Amino acid sequence: QVQLVQSGGGSVQVGGSLRLSCAASGRTISTYLMGWFRQAPGKEREFVTFINWSGTMTHYADSVKGRFTVSRDNAKNTMYLQMNSLRPEDTAVYYCALRTRSHMAVDNMAWSEYDHWGQGTQVTVSS
Predict the structure, then answer these.
(1) Which of 31, 36, 46, 96 has its CA 20 to 30 A from that of 54?
(2) How many other CB atoms are there within 10 angstroms of residue 105's CB atom?
(3) Are residues 64 and 117 in contact, defined by beta-carbon separation less than 8 angstroms?
(4) Is residue 43 within 8 Å of 32, Cβ to Cβ?
């Protein structure tokens, strides 16, 4: 059984930085697509970024491009999200996700393409 355990997050002021971690257990992540999504109060879960199995391909939502960086350390079975220049609109619960289905995803940015989820981490940015 795959488990994704998130850490990091918290409260920062505008312009600050935070780093989220997503550690997997129960299965090696080295061959799988992973992503980050977020959900703000009263809003639907939205795509933030994904990273391919080797870390050689990433994609970001326009709203975070240039400020957020996704990375992974397959040796540690962990994915990271470095968030810089944070804004109040980044306030949300952040979720990491892992896709373990054997066939290629149709849309790597769709939350329905992912099979396993972390518990969620609150990120609050205040002005």
Answers:
(1) 46
(2) 15
(3) no
(4) no
Positions of E strands within the chain: 3-8, 10-13, 18-25, 34-39, 46-51, 58-60, 68-73, 78-83, 92-98, 116-117, 121-126
Q: Which letter, b or e, does each residue of 89-100 get, where b requires 16 or more Cβ atoms within 10 Å of its Cβ?
A: ebbbbbbbbbbe
Sheet holding 18-25, edge to edge: 3-8, 18-25, 78-83, 68-73
The answer to whether 49 and 59 are in contact (CB under 8 A) is: yes
Confidence of residue 69 (pLDDT cuts 50, 70, 90): very high
Q: What is the pLDDT of residues 29-57, one digit of tens each?
A: 999 999 999 999 999 999 999 999 999 99
